[in-house]
Amino acid sequence: MPEARTPAQIEADIVRRRQDLAVMLDEIGVRLHPKTIIGEAKAKTVEAVDRTAGRAYVAANRVVSDVRAQLVSEDGAPRLERIVPVAMVGVGVVGLLVVRSRKRRG
After folding, report:
1. Beta bridge partners of 40
2. What is the DSSP letter of 75?
3. CA distance from start to end of the chain
4. Residue 3: predicted pLDDT
5. What pLDDT, on the 0 to 100 scale, is given for residue 99?
6. What gap in Å lies between CA 70 and CA 80, rounded to an integer?
7. CA 50, CA 1: separation in Å to the nearest integer?
8. Which residues are listed as membrane-spanning (predicted)?
9. Residues 6+ apart with CB under 8 A from 78
10. Among 55, 56, 82, which residue's Cα sits nearest to residue 69?
11. Residues in the chain where the model's pLDDT stays below 50
């Protein structure tokens, strides 16, 4: 059989529960405040953008390193046997674009 509580104990329990509820409501109010929600959304967005930009930077850096390794020897000298064909293709593409744009104008 449970022990009977005195009115003072019951009142103290009610006061403690009210204080706990007040703290909990304050926390909920802070969490649901529009500024808090917006701040959390901004932080998540910034984190996602930073992560995506970092991945893009790493991927671009890897591509540049791979291309450079193909066009430059280990001692830093240019590999003309690879650079000349790439340059010729580039000149050809630019030439085709120029011819194409002149046909559209004419």
Report:
1. none
2. T
3. 104
4. 82
5. 93
6. 11
7. 62
8. 83-99
9. 71, 72
10. 82
11. none
Write down the pTM of the prediction: 0.50
CA distance 37 to 73: 54
Six-digit token pair at 105?
């104008």
Query: SS3 of 72, please?
Result: strand
Q: Give the contacts of 73 (CB within 8 A, at least 6 positions apart).
A: 79
- The b-or-e profile of 50-72 (16+ CB within 10 A means b, else e) is eeeeeeeeeeeeeeeeeeeeeee
Residues across the chain = 106
Please compute, for residue 4, the number of CA atoms within 13 A of its CA located in the half-sphere on the CB side.
2
* pLDDT tens-place string over residues 60-85: 999 999 999 999 998 989 999 999 99
SS3 of 17-52? HHHHHHHHHHHHHHHHCHHHHHHHHHHHHHHHHHHH
In this prediction, residue 1 carries a pLDDT of: 55
Token code pair at residue 88: 């010729």
